């Protein structure tokens, strides 16, 4: 694997995470429990799609065969996607959506903070911009997880169920491979495993306040970041997302 | 916009002699273009009419997320998706300002939502039409928000302060919506033959429903007179509709699309375009609940509300616990 190959994979991982999660969050439009949440969900999705535009545009540039961010988003098949499995699982109820958001946001913020110091200026610039938005995302998802975890008996039970369901998808965020090793060697991005201790400390604090128990199992589903095996859900998501581009090739929108 | 068929709560306009002192002072303020503020005295019928109008407007913003949300997940480019998300976010925000404006009249947001879900309050008829192809999203911005702006620009001068101020804020964002809608449909009208077909289909289907947004013809609009005297309503339905047609026909022609009504023709003498009336029996049917999407739209809002009950309860319980803990600590 050349350094550019690894860099491309890294950029797709960043961009596909925000693309797929932005898509999932946008599915809530008009269906949130309260109007303020409709606004916050649309705002989060909007930020994530904006970040996708930056990551995938850079991926296209690095790939060097003239592909735009839109080409990468709308014309790749599931096996080419490099997002973590966590972001492609269905929304479930509002509790699961916000729990997934918190589990992702907490990782995302740590990652972006480190990427601000990337040796690649373009990566550092994207991280600089994105981390401002993500700081707000994690504040909100954290408060909601705490509020609902430590709310009523029902909201507590639903949040625990959400955490139990999502927990096996967390480990993949920290599982490094040859791509990550190459990024570390080039000083472009940190070793994912190096974020884990801070992440665990944040989770321990928030889940304690939310009166939720972090599952003991260390098992992690993997296969998203390297595209080896996505969930069944991704194909359906892409079917909606890519439909117009696939049905009317070459049209400009 | 989005207020149609607002039943004015009044038995007809009173002459000055019939008015009480309070009513006269109130009407004098209105006539002098002084805004009425929440703590000012106001006739009960004025308050009730405004609650209906602002509430209907707020509900329209909220229900209006659904036809657009129908396409967010299928937006064809990242930029179009981002624009649509920004627009939907604005609309939910408009709903919020408007519910707040209504609350200044002594009705809570929960009560208003309850009235929407039980069918006691309406939302604009336009949102009971489906969005069937991607060009509909452009057309909703261009035609529906375009129609809304015409009404809302007039309402910036409405007599109730909080409503007028909400309108001023909302108008700024709506003009961005209308522009992006026109750009989206322009890309299609000037695009491939299939895209042009989508654009034409959208204009054909949404033209008359957009005209209906201004409410029934003046001759059938029985509630307007008092609302105009109170400056809750600034222009008549037919005046606003004509303004919309005059503004929109040249835009359709610029796009190279066929006009959706064979009777559209420039009338030199009137200085306006002539056009056909919408099918008013269809309009009254939609208002009664028989539009293509009424049942599904209300069901979707009802489901969102019911499914969200545990969330609202949970967050409320948490904030009470925190408040109790703070009290105990003090």
UniProtKB/TrEMBL annotation, chain A:
Q: Which EC number(s) are documented for this chain?
A: 1.14.13.149
Do the record's keywords include Oxidoreductase?
A: yes
Entry annotated with the keyword Oxidoreductase: yes
Q: What class of enzyme is it?
A: oxidoreductase
Its domain of life reads Bacteria
* Alphabetical UniProt keywords: Oxidoreductase
What Gene Ontology terms describe what this protein does at the molecular function level? phenylacetyl-CoA 1,2-epoxidase activity
List, alphabetically, the Pfam families matched: PaaA_PaaC
The record's listing under Gene3D superfamilies reads: 1.20.1260.10
The protein's name: Phenylacetate-CoA oxygenase subunit PaaC
- Organism equals Ruegeria aquimaris
Taxonomic lineage is: Bacteria, Pseudomonadati, Pseudomonadota, Alphaproteobacteria, Rhodobacterales
UniProtKB/TrEMBL annotation, chain B:
Q: Does the keyword Oxidoreductase apply?
A: yes
**Pfam families reported for this sequence:** PaaA_PaaC (PF05138)
Main enzyme class:
oxidoreductase
An example of a GO molecular function for this protein is: phenylacetyl-CoA 1,2-epoxidase activity
Recorded hits in InterPro entries, A to Z, give:
Aromatic_CoA_ox/epox, Ferritin-like, Ferritin-like_SF, PaaA, PaaA_PaaC
Please verify whether the record's keywords include Oxidoreductase: yes
Enzyme Commission code? 1.14.13.149
Q: Which UniProt keywords apply?
A: Oxidoreductase
Region called Disordered, residue ranges:
1-24
Extent of Basic and acidic residues compositional bias: 13-24
The identity of this protein, by name, is: 1,2-phenylacetyl-CoA epoxidase subunit A
């Amino acid at each position: 694997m050349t350094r550019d190959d690894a860099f491309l994979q890294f950029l797709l991982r960043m961009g596909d995470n925000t693309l797929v999660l932005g898509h999932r969050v946008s599915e809530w439009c008009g269906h949130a429990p309260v109007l303020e949440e409709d606004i916050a969900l649309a705002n989060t999705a909007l930020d994530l799609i904006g970040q996708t535009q930056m990551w995938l545009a850079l991926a296209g540039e690095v790939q060097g065969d003239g592909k735009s961010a839109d080409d990468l988003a709308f014309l790749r098949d599931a096996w080419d996607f490099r997002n973590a499995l966590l972001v492609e699982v269905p929304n479930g109820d509002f509790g699961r959506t916000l729990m997934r958001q918190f589990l992702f946001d907490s990782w995302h913020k740590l990652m972006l903070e480190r990427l601000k110091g990337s040796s690649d200026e373009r990566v550092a610039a994207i991280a600089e911009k994105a981390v401002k938005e993500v700081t707000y995302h994690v504040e909100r998802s954290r408060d909601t997880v705490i509020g609902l975890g430590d709310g009523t008996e029902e909201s507590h039970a639903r949040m625990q169920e959400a955490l139990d369901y999502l927990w096996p998808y967390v480990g993949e965020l920290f599982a490094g491979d040859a791509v990550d090793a190459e990024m570390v060697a080039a000083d472009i991005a940190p070793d994912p495993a190096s974020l884990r201790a801070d992440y665990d400390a944040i989770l321990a604090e928030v889940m304690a306040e939310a009166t939720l128990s972090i599952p003991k199992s260390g098992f992690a589903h993997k296969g998203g970041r390297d595209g080896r095996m996505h969930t069944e859900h991704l194909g359906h998501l892409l079917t909606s997302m890519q439909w117009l581009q696939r049905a009317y090739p070459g049209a400009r929108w | 916009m989005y207020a149609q068929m607002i039943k004015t709560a009044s038995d007809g306009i009173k002459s000055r002699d019939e008015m009480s002192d309070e009513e006269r002072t109130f009407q004098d303020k209105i006539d002098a273009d002084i805004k009425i503020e929440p703590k000012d005295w106001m006739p009960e019928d004025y308050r009730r009419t405004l609650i209906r109008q602002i509430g209907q407007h707020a509900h329209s913003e909220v229900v209006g997320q659904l036809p657009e949300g129908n396409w967010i997940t299928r937006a064809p480019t990242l930029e179009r998706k981002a624009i649509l998300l920004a627009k939907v976010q604005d609309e939910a925000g408009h709903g919020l300002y408007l519910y707040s404006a209504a609350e200044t009249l002594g009705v809570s947001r929960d009560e208003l939502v309850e009235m929407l879900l039980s069918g006691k309050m309406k939302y604009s008829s336009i949102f009971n039409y489906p969005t069937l192809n991607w060009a509909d999203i452009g057309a909703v911005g261009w035609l529906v928000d375009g129609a809304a702006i015409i009404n809302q620009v007039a309402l910036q001068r409405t007599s109730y302060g909080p409503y007028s101020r909400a309108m001023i804020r909302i108008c700024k964002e709506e003009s961005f919506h209308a522009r992006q809608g026109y750009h989206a449909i322009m890309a299609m009208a000037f695009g491939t033959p299939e895209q042009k077909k989508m654009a034409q289909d959208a204009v054909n289907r949404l033209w008359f429903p957009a005209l209906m947004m201004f409410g029934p013809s003046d001759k059938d609009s029985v509630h307007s007179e008092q609302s105009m005297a109170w400056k809750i309503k600034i222009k008549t339905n037919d005046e606003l509709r004509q303004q919309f047609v005059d503004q929109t026909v040249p835009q359709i022609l610029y796009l190279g699309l066929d006009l959706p009504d064979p009777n559209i023709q420039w009338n030199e003498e009137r200085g306006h375009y002539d056009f056909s009336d919408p099918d008013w029996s269809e309009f009254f049917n939609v208002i009664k609940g028989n539009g293509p999407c009424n049942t599904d739209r209300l069901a979707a809002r009802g489901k969102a509300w019911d499914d969200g009950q545990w969330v609202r309860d949970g967050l409320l319980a948490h904030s009470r616990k925190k408040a109790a803990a703070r009290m105990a600590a003090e």
